[in-house]
Design a protein that fits this description.
heterodimer; A: about 775 residues; mainly alpha; 5 domains; about 70% helix; about 0% strand; B: about 140 residues; two-stranded antiparallel sheet; 5 helices; 2 strands; MnhB (chain B); transmembrane helix (chain B); CPA3_antiporter_subunitB (chain B); Na+/H+ antiporter subunit B (chain B)
Amino acid sequence: MISAILLGFLFALLLVFAGKFFKGKFAVLSSLIPLGLFLYFLQFIPEIMEGKVVKESYNWVPSFGVNLGFTLDGLSLLFCLMITGIGFLVFAYTSAYLHHHKYLDRFYGYLSVFMAAMLGLVLSDNVISLFTFWELTSISSFFLIGFNNTQEASRKSALTALGITGLGGMFLLAGVVVLGNITGTFSIAEMLNMSPELIKGNEYYTLAVIMLFGAAFTKSAQFPFHFWLPGAMKAPTPVSTYLHSATMVKAGIYLVMRFTPILGGEEIWNTTLIVVGAVTMLYSAVHSLFRTDLKGVLAYSTISALGILMFLIGMGTTESFTAAAVFIIVHALYKATLFLTTGIIDHQTGTRDVTVLSGLRKVLMPVGIAAIIAAISSAGIPPTVGFLGKELTYEATMHAPIIATVLLVGIVITKMLLLWAGFVAGIKPFQGNLPDSLKDTKMPGPLMWVPPVILAVLSLVFGIMPFIIEGSLIKPVVATLGGESGEIHLALWHGFNTVFILSLVTITIGTILYFVLKPSAKLETAVGKLEFASPKSLMEKFNTGFTYVSSFWTRVFQNGYLRNYVFIIIFFLIGMVGYSMLGNTEFNIDTSELSNVSFYELVVFIIMCIAILFTVFTGSRLSAVVAMGVVGLTICLVFVFYSAPDLAMTQFSIDTLTVILFVLVLYRLPRYLKIQDHKMRIRDGILSLLFGGMIAALALKVLSEPVNTEIGDFYAKNSYIMAHGKNVVNVILVDFRGADTMIEISVLTIAAIGVFGLLKLRLKRTDRVQ
Amino acid sequence: MKTIILRTASNYLLPVLLLFSIFILLRGHYLPGGGFVGGLIAAIAFVLHSFANGLKNTKSLLRFHPGFLMPTGLALSFFSGLSPMIFAGDPFMTGLWYHGHVPVLGSIGSAMFFDMGVYLVVVGVTLTIIFTISEAP
């Protein structure tokens, strides 16, 4: 399984070197990777059908007891098949859609990184690796949305998406850490084995749930975080199909489903999901009425569908789980089809404005058939699988645990509006008369029109023969979620009952709405006037304010003058440390235990004092530096007197080099020293005295504290036994705490590279832009 | 500071100081010393040479940019840390020792190579910074 995940990453790596090969004629070959993976995951179906769970585990950080575990159960399998199956079609479609694009190899690279990350996400048993893959999907999505990086709108949308999903990533990390603390494990399988009461009774249960919801709602574009998804439609259409409709945005759904058996069932879990899902599905279904861009319509109807899924999972019954599982398949099939046909229309006609498009059936017949089947499936008209999904959804909502009637009205209205959206995207462009401007539209190659046709046919096949998915996909998913999978019987005809009447009502009113309400630019601008109150503009206002505050902050505190930085740092340090020391500091200097001051020490002390006074009062910068050097050397001597030869040696060399560096830098400064006026000198003097006094007080305080010698004793005792060294200081540096040293020398290297880069960088005049 | 005395002296002092720095590096495990101090001393030796003979001469004596010592040292330290994982299957940074007496060095272990890496990084960092600053226009 791990090799299946790694394959995508390896392919992306290969593209760095063999990009040219996959850019030209052989671009379509790259679709063999998802196809191979799809077949690989298909062969697990019989095993999963029997209720087995496939597990793999690798040692990751054994000293922390962290294992890299992968689990394939019903839920993972459904997602894996969607990721690789739709991935295969999208990879193939892209080779024609971005035919001979300059950066096609990059595009495939991002796409396969995304695919691999998504597979890792749904297969991870370890929540930390789940988080890692989660972040990787956000990052690859960022690159794909910003693929047309010469357009400002693309870049902006990419950043918005990264900002929102990145925020979600933070929530997820916090959530899994809290969860890890509650359960004492990072493995989902082990969490499942614990008694649920233990987790739900924990005082941090609510916190964990809120964090996980934060992650799921941002990723799956739930209200009020939904606005990144319409923006993400700036990406090339294959990306919208794959990431922002079929797979990535369902990662949040996956997360909620995955944790339902562990955290679900409580009121906060169910109610939040139902409310957020219901608000999202209605809000964005209404919004889709006001779009004229085909992709805009599809984006809002996708958000609405994600809302429906959250809502269904929130109800927490076997019926609702079944409906959710079926609806995931339904939505993936029809929405991917509609996106792909939209991509074809865009590619062949150059526009996605639905008010302009009509009559395309005359020129794009096979595409039209696929789109119309998808529209029918989205409307929930038999014999497509969409009908099945809608019936199950209504059935589940009727038996909702809370306010079933209100929810039922909500879902019926949502479905009517979604029917409108599906018809607008799937039927409207192909209906009516072909305008002259579109007369010479050409049929694209089979690589483009076959993928949507395959998906549309699957919508039909699963609708007519639901038993294909019943045992292989739906039942295992429901079993994973903790439902009674034995009760499930999918069938197209449920009999003439309330649900069927509701279906008829939905279809009738929805169709009437389609004929009455035409998408128009006027409506779009009308609703645009309300934009100032939308979550998106509120977020933008907040961000603008944030930038303003931070630039003010930077102007004041980091104005580029070194003296200012030093002043502020020392000032705050005195304030903070001094405040905490005030009142609770006692000194008991025990003079009886002090050794006698020897003649040498006295001499060194006097030299030090003279050197300090000289540094402060000298008029020449160079002599100040030399005097500082003298101070450093006297400190070395103090170290020697008190038997710290290691420190003395190091201090000596450092001091020598510091003086050299100072001289080298000061050499370049202007000649005069008195750049401060009198007032500033007094201010600096007071600050220095305060700081020095505080450090002295601190040192005395440290001396009067009881000393814990345990660590020192350990090092002294084991230095020779364990590390074969007699010099304890050095053994600590290179052995006991060698990892620290490793990091320190890396930091040194970075500093040196920084100095080198800053001083050697000579930009051309034209490049010097602020 | 291009006096004849300093120039002549620095030519002789350079190898002596370098030898001394290596001595300090190697004795570090038993007596005061170690890679950090050793590296600083070696850097000072080159700086002294450059003061007396000019930066150009020192650089031509070095033959390569001191910056290259940084990745070399980092790699040496890192691989000395990795070596127990490769050779003994122990965790990262476990001490690995050759239990036998080696003339001059005493005993050899992965920690010694780690210290050598530190030495190289310190020389590289110090010289890179000082050379860059003194070359700046």
